[in-house]
Amino acid sequence: MAATTASEAVRVTLCKSRRPLLRLDVAPFALIYALLHAYAWISLMNGTISYETLACIPVALAAHLLLFLSTRWSVRIRCWVAFRTCDHKDATHALALSSTAALCELKEEAPRGRFFSFQRRIYVQDGPTWRPHAPKTQRPLAELAQCTGLETNEQETTQRRSWGPNAFNIEDPTFSELFEEHYLAPFFVFQVFCCVLWSLDEYWVYSAFTLVMLLLFEATLCIQRLRNLEQLRSMRRPARLLYAYRQKKWRPVMSDDLLPGDVIALSSTQRRKDPIPVPCDCLLLGGSAVVSEAMLTGESVPQRKEGLIDADLTTTLDVDGGHRKHVLFGGTDLLDASRGDSTRSTPPNGGVEALVLRTGFETAQGSLMRTILFATEQVTGSTETGKFIGVLLIFAVVAALYVLQEGLKDPRRNRFKLGLHCILIITSVVPPELPMELSLAVTNSLQALGRSGIFCTEPFRIQFAGSVDVCCFDKTGTLTSDELTARGVAFSSEFIDDRANLPADTLLVLASCHAVSRGSNGLLGDSLERAQLQFAGVDRPDKVRVLKRYGFSSELRRMTCACAQGASTVVTCKGAPEALRPLLRDVPADYDALYEQHASRGMRVLALASRAVSSQMDWKSVERSTAEADLIFRGFLCLTSPLKPGTRNVIQHLQASGHKCVIITGDNVLTAAHVARSVGILGDDQTWVLTANGESPVWRSGNSVKPFAAAPSQGLCCRGDALASLSELQVAIVASRCSVFARFSPKHKEKIVDALNKRGVTTLMCGDGTNDVGALKRAHVGVSIANAPELEKRLPSTSEDVATMRKTLADAELSLSDQDPSLVRLGDASIASPFTSKRATIECVLAIVCQGRCTLVSMIQIFKILAVLCLVSAYMLSSLYLHGVKQGTEQGDAQMTVSGILTAALFFLTSRANPLETLSKKRPPRGVFEIKPILSIGLQFAAHLQALFKCLELCAPFASNEESVPDGAFAPSVLNTAIFLLTSCVQLNTFACNYVGRPFTESLREHKPMLYVLLAGYAVVFLLAAGLVPPLSDYLRLVAPPSSDFRARFLGLLLADSATVAGLSFVA
Q: Residues 310, 474, 482, 505: which is the catalytic one?
C-alpha cells in the first residue's frame, strides 16, 4: 500500500486482475454447482431427492448473485473478488481510497510515466508512493521571475501531454448508463427483492404498484442528474482569445490552450460589460492588478495584486500563504491592470505579464468545481444507520424464529411458504425507503436555504447546524459593516477631525500608504483605505508616486510604502499600534494610553509613521526591515464602522436559545470588546484581557493583574500573543471561557476553533474573507458572508415592488421547475466554507441553525417512525401468518396497496414541515441513539404490541368459528379485518405522535396538509371499524363487526392505543 503525498488524504493499493477462472465469483461457485449437480444426479439415480438438496440450489444461486452485486456496490469487494494485491511492477490497477473509493486503471505515457486518474486529478508514481500530478509551484521566486515562457514546440508538446487542456471537462453519461447504476444500487435491489417476495405470496397488485413507482422514481433521478451535469457544464466560461509569450514573441492563443510555464498578458482595457475572468492560476511578474475574488472566497472587497518586482526573490513561492498578494487565481475577475517594467516587448493588448502556475482542475476554481462534483452525498452517519437497522433486525429475527418454530409444528404448512414468510418478516424491518426519506429531508433543507440566498457544497453538514453549541464570529465585515468612516487623527495633545488642520507629514502618510487604484466605477480597494483617502481629500490614488510598496501582511499587521515627494523620498507606514511601536524612533509617553482610549470607544485605530530617506536608494534591493527602521510617529488614525442591520437581534436570539457567541478578530482587543458589549456578548462588568507576560500569561484589567489560574468568572478576552505561552490544555480552557479573541492571526483563529472541537463542542464559524478560511474549514458549520450591499438595494421596498417580485418569482419558478434546488453553482459556492450566504448580514446564521434543527428533527422523526412501523409490521405479519390470515382481496391485495400509499403520503408531508423563524432554548436530540428517542420507540412499540395481543384476544372467539387453512387463499375474516384496521390506526398514530412540531418546526395544526390527511385517515378507520361504510368495506374485503359488543370493544381498543401513544409523546 502506498499513501499519496497530497494534502487531500488518498490511500492507494496496487493490484492486478485475476485470471477469469481464479476470480472468487467464478472458481468457488463452479465447484459448488458441480458438487450440487453430482449429488442431485446421484439422488435421482437412487430414486429419491431430499428437500434439503433442492433448497441448496436456490441458496447457492442467491449467494452467487449477491456476491456479483456486491462487486457493483463496493469497490473494495470488487477488488477482493476480481483482483489481487501486488507490487508496482505487476500492477494493472490502483484502488484509491478517500471520502469515496475507485478502482482506477494504471496507464503509462510520457512525460507522466505511470499514472491513474481519480476524482479529476492525475496521480503519478513517485518511487514507492503516489502523488498528485500538479505543477510544482514551490519554486524560488528568483527562478520564477526569470521565466521566459515556452520557447520551443517540443516544450509546448511536452506540457500539453503532461497537463492537458485548461478546461473543466465533465463526462456526459447516457441515460442508460445512469439508470444501470441506479437499478443496481443496494437499496433498489433490496426493494425489487421484496417485491418478488410479496408476489410469491400472491400480492400481485401491491408488488406491481411498488415496482412501477420505484422505476419511475429512479428514472426521474437519472433525468435530474443529467440536467445537473448539463448545468455544471454550462457554468464554464467560454474560452477567449489572449496573448502568450511563446518562442520569443507574443502569440494569440485561446484560454483553454494555456499551459503551465506560459507567460501571458492580461488586460482590463477591453470595453466589456462584464468583468474579465482570469483563465488560470498565475503569478504576476510585473505591474499590478486589482481583482475580485468573490467568485472563490466570497470576499467582496477587491484585492490588489503586486508583481514580483517588490518581492523578496530569495524566498520560495507560497501560493496560499505569504505570496498570495502576487497570485491571480483562476475564476476571479480582473477589474484593473497596470503594466510595469519588463524585458519583453509590449504585448498587443498592453496587459500585465503573468506566469501560468496551474491550469484546469488543479486551479483554485478547479478545486471548487471538484468539491461541487464530489461532495459527499452522505446525509447521515452510515454507522448510525447500520446500528439502527441492526437493532431492528434483532427483533425481526426473534419474530421469524418464533414463526418458524410454530410453523414446523403444523404438518399442514407448506415448507416453502413457511420459509418465504420468515424471510418476509425479516425484510419488513429493513426500511427500503430510509435513504430516500433522508435524502428528501436534506433536499428540502437545501431548497429552503437556497431561497434565502444560502448555498451549501457539503449537504451532510446541515444536520450539524441543528446541534451547534458555540457560534464564532469575525468582527469587521461580519458583525460590523466593512464600510468605515475616518473620524480624525489623534495626537497626544489634540484630536484633529478636519484635514485642513492636519500636519503635512500626516497627510502624506494618508495619501501614499495604501493599495487603492481607480477603476471604471470609482476607487477599487479596501474600504478602510478608501475611507483614509476620502478623509485626506485625495481624489486620485496615484497622486503620490509610490516607488515601492510593502503590502499589508496579517502576520506583520502593517503596510509600508516608499514614495517620492518632489526631490526627496519618504517612507510612510501604517498599521496596528502594537506592530508599529517597536519601529518608532521615539515613542510618546502616552502612546499606549492614547490608542487604548479610542479603541475602548469602539474605534478602529491605526498608527501612522514616516521618515525621510535618501533619494539615491535603489528600492529594488531594499529589504522591508531596513525601510521600516527609525520611523517618526505621525498620529493615530481613528475610524468607525457601524453594526450591520440585525446584528444585535441575531446575537441576542442565539444567546436566548442557549448558544454561546464569541468574537474572533484580528482587530484591537478593546475595539472588539466594545463591539461585544454593543451586541450583548459581553456584559457591562469589568473586562479582563489575557496577555503575554513572559512564560506565564496574566489577566489584566487596567492596572489590575491576576495570574492565569485566578481567572475571573466573566468579561474574559484573549489577545493573540498570549497563545504562544499556553499549553494545549490551557488553550482549551481559554477557548471555552473567553468571549472575545482579538489580535488573532488566521492560524490563531483556526487553533481556537480546533480547541473547541476537541472539547466535544459543535462549532459554527461565520466570517467574510480569506483571513477566516482556516477557521471556517475547521468548524463543523462554516459560513462565509458575501458582503454585497448592492444586493440589499435590490430588495423590494413598497407593496407594489412586493407584488411585482412575487409575480417575477412565480414566473421564475415555472421556468426553473426542472432544476435541482440542491445543485450549487459557481458563484454561489465558496472555497472558504461549506455554506455561502449572498446576504451581507449574520441573519444567515439564524436561518442555517433553524434549518439545521428542522433537518435534524426530521431525520430523527424518520428513524423513529420507520422503527415503530417496521417492528409493528414484523409482529403483525407473524400474527397473521400463524393464524392463517392474509391481507388482500380476491382480485388482488388492495389492503396492502392502500396502506403503502398512506405511508408514502404521510412521509412526504412530514418532510415538508417548515422550520420556525425563532429558535427555542430547547435542543433537539443529536441522534436517534440518545436515551429519549430510544425510550420513545420502545414505549410506542410496547403499547402497539399490547394492542395487538388484545386484538388477538378479542378476535379469538370469532376466529375459532372460522375455518383457517394454512397457506390457503385469502378469505375475509374478523381477524383479518381487525388486524388491518389496527395496523392502519397504528400507522396514523405513529406519524401523528412522532411529529415533533414546535419548538423546532411548525405545529401539526399549522401543517394543514398533514393535519387534514391524518384527520381523514382517522375518520375512515373509525367508520370502517364501526361498519358504517359497507361499499368501502366490500372493496377492501372487510367483514362487518360480528356484534355490537365487539364493535364497542374494538373501537375502545383503537381509542386506547391512540390515547396511550399520544400520552407517551409528551413523556418521551
A: 474
